[in-house]
User: Fold this.
Amino acid sequence: MNRSLDSTRLVDMDEIVARGEGEPVHLVQTAGPGAERTFRVLPLQRAVIGRSDTSTICVDDGDVSRRHALIEHQDGEPRLIDLASTNGTFVNGQRIDEVALASGDLIQIGTAVFEVSVGRSAEPQPSPPAEDDSKVRQQMESLHEKLRDAPSGSGVVVVQETILSGALEGVGLTSLLQILEANRNTGTLLLHLEPGVGRLHLHKGRVDDATFGTTRGMKALTRLLGCTGGHFELLAPGIEPERPTIEGPLDALLLTAMTEVDEFAQYRGELPPDDAVLVFNPNRFFILSRMPPDLFDVLAAIARHRSVGQVIDECHLSDLIICRYLLMLLSEGIVTVEAQEPKDSESSPG
Assistant:
């Protein structure tokens, strides 16, 4: 439904918050062109299924319309909508115009069949290195061997000693942290990455502090896990942080962070570029007492920093939460992208 931005309107906070709720939808194509593919639709995404190359899910089948059907979340519920297709959209054998999706549903569009799973339980989990990946296994065994007799560190500030170093390629930061946890190491892990240097402090194998650029805590850890390549140094005994910024079992932290990395990558592509300037629509207004605190923080960051990249960097919330709120605000017309004046291609005559 199109809404005019020219009339003053009160923002419905419940509607805004509801747009970000819901569970992801996973589709496994079991028949038709491109079978064995898997797709995921997140709560703020709109996935078009069709024959067009620009479709989110492209089905190269003459019985499929260019824009055949749409999957989107409404009030947190995933729904499949037929886009006036010529040959129809079917769910569990019944032709539909619009229907809520549930796990176990079978969607048929042309000759393509998709099996539906709804919820986080359908998320693919990171798999360990393949048994025949001898190089990676040798690297991991070598790290274990080097750490076996290394000092665990007391957390007291003394002369720092590099007890372990190496390349992240192959092993990866996730596996490295799991090795350090298994060995109950205490120390500071320096990560030399292309965007800069990150620091993780470990106490008996658990990460209790992270810094990366201007970010700290879980936000920094998530960004570090999203980087690839680079090399690391483990310093013992390490410098303890003034206060822990991260708490919880390592496996739970890694799962949360990697899920955020994955979803942020998908949502970020739908936002304007980093240097795009955001402005508030003067025809929309809020009742502050009904505003969720996180949304207030994002709006305050927009007022202070304005550009998309700075808002994501400077707001203390996780990158994923900021990204989701920005998508909501833009889609509802509460904020817009400021038009840029064209640059003169030629200098004015003297």
